[in-house]
Design a protein that fits this description.
By secondary structure, this protein is α/β, with parallel strands linked by helices. The chain has 2 domains: 9-111 and 291-347, 3-Layer(aba) Sandwich (Rossmann fold), CATH 3.40.50.300; 147-234, no CATH class. It contains 9 helices and 16 strands. The chain has helices at 43-54, 58-62, 132-150, 165-183, 201-206, 208-242, 274-288, 307-324, 335-338; strands at residues 9-17, 21-26, 32-36, 68-73, 77-84, 87-94, 97-100, 112-115, 121-123, 129-131, 246-250, 256-260, 266-267, 295-299, 327-332, 345-347. A hairpin with a 2-residue loop joins strand 6 (87-94) and strand 7. Helix 3 (132-150) crosses helix 7 (274-288) and helix 4 packs parallel to helix 6 (208-242).
Length: 354
């Protein structure tokens, strides 16, 4: 089977949506494409349909009235899905060669994340409907507390890597920079009492084997936890840029909490306003649930947000998309979300079949 691995969606074409509407959408070269239209034009239906196909949720796909949907990728392949009276056909085409794609491997074509407009509630592992803020903040706190726990004992690393004193000195400088960044996320490794960090060149030379072992352990730790720390730091930076009169930080037990600026009153995050919860949830999903190189669809990000917050969404989402190499499709009714990025916007016009 030829899947478009390490590639990205570039164009979407649908025929007979609701049995009467056709769209051909060229996605932007940059990280974000805004899709906007009047109510009832099918934009939410279309973007959710794209994600359900790429996630292999064909039971959801077959109930949507459409005749054919083509997903074009930047390696000149396309995924063709046809719906004939809820009988689906899924075919991958490249270089005029067609191959049927079984339902159970559709999710291998391209990783996709759909961020639903009804995002205040979600299902837990048992299928129970729960407040999203409670589930996601618990997941994040669990990750932070695991990192704190792992920080108590550095991993032992076996390696035949040949390292001179100069190599170790440079390695410690690189590690120190990473650990300084990781520390902002609320955790850091415990350095053995018989070692100094960072060591001087003299100390490295005098106790080469000891510091070689420390360097390898710290490098492994930094490589393991830097991505988590990066996501946490970006997450808190975005939240604290947007939130007014309060600041969100990580307490000494690894839990996120909001503190009022003047009184110092601690506010549980599940007591946040509806708009604040939307920000906490939406950017949590973007930073902690979207795989690097994947497609992300955000449906109606403007829900419950003040216009000033709506205007800042594009920049934050675009910055994350560039760092993670994401392709983001934003479906919106709100001109403020598009703000000054109309060159990245596609309007769905009324293109009906005869």
């Amino acid at each position: 089977m030829f899947f478009p691995r390490d590639t990205m969606l570039t164009r979407v074409s649908v025929t007979g949506l609701f049995n009467e509407i056709n769209y051909d959408i060229q996605l932007m070269d940059g990280p974000i494409t805004f899709i906007h239209a009047q109510n009832g034009q099918g934009k939410s239906t279309l973007v959710k349909l794209i994600c359900n196909i790429l996630q292999g949720n064909l039971e959801e796909v077959r109930t949507v009235p459409f005749q054919r949907l083509d997903l074009f990728f930047d390696n000149n392949s396309r995924l063709i899905v046809t719906n004939r009276n809820q009988e689906l056909s899924t075919i991958m085409q490249k270089n005029r060669v067609e191959e049927e794609i079984p339902e159970n491997v559709l999710a291998d074509v391209l990783s996709a994340l759909y961020i639903d407009p009804e995002r205040l509630y979600t299902c837990d592992d048992l299928g129970n409907l729960v407040p999203s803020i409670d589930l996601y903040m618990k997941e994040l706190s669990d990750s932070i507390r695991r990192a704190i726990g792992d920080s108590m004992t550095l991993p032992a690393v076996e390696s035949d890597e040949k390292l001179t004193d100069a190599d170790l000195d440079q390695m410690f400088k690189n590690i120190e920079a990473k650990l300084n960044f990781i520390r902002q996320a609320g955790f850091q490794p415990t350095i053995p009492s018989n070692c100094k960090f960072p060591p001087t060149r003299y100390e490295i030379s005098e106790k080469h084997d000891r510091y070689r072992s420390l360097a390898l352990s710290l490098r492994t730790y930094a490589d393991r936890y830097y991505p988590l720390a990066e996501s946490i730091v970006i997450y808190l930076d975005i939240i604290n840029t947007l939130f007014v009169n309060k600041r969100v930080d990580i307490n000494d037990k690894g839990f996120l909490q909001a503190t009022m600026d003047r009184s110092g009153t601690i506010i549980p995050l599940n007591r946040s306003s509806s708009g604040e919860k939307q920000i906490l949830i939406m950017f949590y999903l973007l930073l902690f649930k979207a795989s690097p190189g994947s497609l992300v669809v955000i449906d109606e990000p403007e829900v419950s947000l003040h216009v000033s917050w709506q205007q800042q969404l594009g920049k934050f989402i675009s910055d994350i998309a560039r760092v993670r190499e994401l392709k983001v499709i934003i479906s919106t009714h709100a001109p403020a979300v598009i703000h000054d990025r109309w060159d990245c916007a596609v309007e769905l016009g009324d293109s009906r079949t005869n």
